[in-house]
Amino acid sequence: MQDGRTGGTARAFELLEPLVQAATVRVHAAPDGYAPRGTGPTWGSGFFIAPGWVLTCAHVVGEGGAAVRLAGRELGITFPSGADGATGTVTGRVECVLPERLEEHRPARRALWDLPDLALVRVLAPITHACVRLTDRGRPRPDEVAYFGCTEDLGAPEITGRTTRLRGTAAAGAALRLGDDDEIEPGMSGGPVVDLARGEVVGVVKARRSGGGGGLAVSVVQLRTLPLAATGQVGLYRRVMQAHDLYHYDQHLSDRGSRRTWTDVHAELPAREDPYEGGRRLTAAERTTLCGLLAELPPPRSSEEVRALVEAARGEEPDPGLPAPLSWRDGLGMLHDPPDGAGEAAAMLRYATDVSVADHREPPAPGADEELWDWVRATAARLWRPLRRELGERHERGLAQRDRSRRARVDRHPHGHTRPSGTLLQGPSVLLEAWAHGWEDVYDWRVSVLYGPAHPGRVTPVDSGVRATRAALADVLRVPLAEAFRRCDTHEAAALLEVAVAPELFGLPVDTWTVAGRTPLGVQRPVVFRYPAATGGAIPNDDEADHRRADRWNRVQAGPPADERADCDRGRPRTPAPEWLDALPDNTVPVHCRAAEEEPTRSSLYGIRDAGYGVAVTRRPPQDPAADCAPFHRGLREELTEAARGAPLPVRLQALRARAHGADPDAYWADGMALVWDDPARALPEDEPLQGDL
Question: What is the pTM of this model?
């Protein structure tokens, strides 16, 4: 402990140090069965965040250079195994690293690894160990902190702690700046950073300054960027955080043992000046209990479900700049410090009430939702008796709404189907917009969440940028798209990606881009192109044109869709005349087999837009310019016939891409095919971002 710290900070460090040290580990090479257990040089540090799970830095588990594969690597974990200073060693396996591209793109020696530079390690044997308490706050405050890790001051490895102050954030909040009050020593990378005012781990030590003390840590909120789960699976982040919350809940309820828990210590931390304290906060024990009760419920259907409940409880839209909330506990973290000094406890109890009556995607454990509601009522009575009445009315309304939703679902789908087979969900989608800089090959871009017919006109920006080259778009958009998908994907299905660009960009190979893992986007989810709302030569905007677009859209959806070659005639290029396009039947799907940015396809795409066709097909031509387009047209006609109507087309095209990705020769004809899907019910924003410097 350094001199010059306040009395409150010194007391907090004294209380928290034993808890943090009990959960902090030394990372090294895996035991080989011959050398004494736990020997070998230290690679870095880590800490238990849930039973059997260690969090550390990716560069720590990457010890050994670029030739070492990270995910799946086995390593040694030496951990405290008793109050007498004894240690044990166990083998761990790297479950995943963040960002995933570190597997292919490693930094040069002694260079900083890309953020978030995290690794999650699974312990391969059952052991008894302590776990830290992670923050649920999206943005830590610039307060006094302590950081811990493995040092060798006296020639033997030991876990030690130092104190400093958070000096701000970097990389849009992904990194935390640590003050230079003390030096971060080799071996401390991967150790925990603890907020001394609140008794929560807020970061992971990443790097020290080359010229002195201080350095960088990674915000633990970046754990939300763990790889997305496959449809129908819970996902690694939710599993680990559920285990984390249940661990602390069980520790709090247990009568065994005399050691103080994190909840006990939270109640003993020195009081701090807090402008929100007058709004009544939950006690440490109440927070632990609430997190545990939420962890016993099925996880939310989607991130947007959590955000909607937070907005209803908080009274304003939550911070859109935070990583997507993936669990019920993440929603609690968005309710700290509510607007206008409103009661934080009241907001959390409103949120818990709404969760207790949520229409969960699977039945909760018997009595779990009732137990949560009983706790809410009892806690509300302690805080403010009229609040209990308000929450009771809220609970009754929620139950009635849930019953109505379930009855309506059964009435619409008596055989248990929640949507027509093979069609899109009508919830939020991810919107990617890009605008060209005149004749330059650089683009401004924006990624947003588009809420669709349920919330007409509502769009939440995720990220934006300027002057990205066409070749760099895939890499530039990897992180923003991943965040948007986390917000929109549900347990039932991956969200639709809508790409709104000028027609000459319909040849962008968005379906081949990778965001998570190595599976292309077009295989993971439906991907469609749209005409941008704000662009030169906009779609005619009058009642007659609107009726024509609506009629053609509805006719194609009802089916059967009929293909019509728009830019070729038996393999020869042609430019369709506007009169010819206008005269085609409303159920027509215009088909293009040539490059979108070249004539005559470019003019044809603008022509079918102006004629009101909301569904069309285009493709990236094969590399061989002499290749015949007949197989493509024949295969597409068969696909439209089998679909029988327009609604299943985005999902059927996704299935074709999956077949081609799996090396099915019968699907190769669809390589490069793209679907124009300009749904009039999903209105696009009409503004565009400011262009970058010229």
Answer: 0.86
The CA distance from 325 to 338, in Å, is 17
| 233 closest CA partner among 446, 56, 492 | 492
DSSP 3-state assignment of 229? coil
Alpha-helical runs (H) found in 162-319: 236-253, 262-268, 284-295, 303-314
Contact 113, 57 (CB under 8 A): yes
Give me the residue label for tokens 């984390």: 244
CA atoms within 13 A on the CB side of 403: 6
Q: Report yes or no: 55 and 201 within 8 Å, Cβ to Cβ.
A: no
DSSP E strand boundaries for 313-427? none
Distances (CA, A) of 215 to 18, 338, 487, 538: 24, 31, 31, 51
Handedness of CA 44, 48, 53, 56 (dihedral sign): negative
Contacts of 518 (CB under 8 A, 6+ apart): none
Residue whose structure tokens are 């909120």: 221
**Residue 277 one-letter amino acid:** E
Tell me the Cα Rg of the chain.
Answer: 28
Phi, psi of 633 (to 5 degrees): -65, -40
The answer to whether the CB of 333 falls within 8 A of the CB of 136 is yes
Cα–Cα nearest to 614, from 652, 541, 557: 557
DSSP string, 521-579: HHHHS-EEEE--SSSSSPPP-SHHHHHHHHHHHHHHHHS--EEEESSEETTEE----HH
Decide if 557 contacts 464 (C-beta within 8 A): no
Q: What DSSP string runs through 456-479?
A: TT-EEEEEEEEEEETTTHHHHTHH
Task: Give the model confidence (pLDDT) of 203-248 as tens digits.
Answer: 999 998 776 667 899 999 999 988 776 655 568 899 999 999 999 9
Sequence-separated (6 or more) residues with CB below 8 Å from residue 500? 431, 432, 433, 434, 529, 530, 531, 532, 533, 684
Cβ neighbour number for residue 56 with a 10 Å cutoff: 30
Per-residue burial over 75-102, b if 16 or more Cβ lie within 10 Å, else e, is bbbbbbbeeeeebbbbebebbbbbbbeb
CA distance 123 to 274: 40
The dihedrals phi and psi of 160, each to the nearest 5 degrees, come to -130, 165
- Cβ atoms of 559 and 644 within 8 Å: the answer is yes
- Cα–Cα distances (Å) from 174 to 114, 139, 163, 187, in that order, read 11, 9, 21, 22
Render the burial of 14-38: b for 16+ CB within 10 Å, e for the rest.
ebbbebbbbbbbbbbbbbeeeeeeb
How far is the C-alpha of 23 from the C-alpha of 17, rounded, in Å?
10
Cβ proximity of 388 and 380 under 8 Å: yes
- Average pLDDT estimate for 456-474: 91
Return the amino acid letter for 404.
Answer: R
Model confidence over 3-62: pLDDT tens digits?
Answer: 445 567 899 999 999 999 999 999 999 987 554 444 689 999 999 999 999 999 999 999
The Cα 395–Cα 31 span in angstroms is 54
∠ Cα 573 641 646 (to 5°)? 85
Residue type (1 letter), 549? R
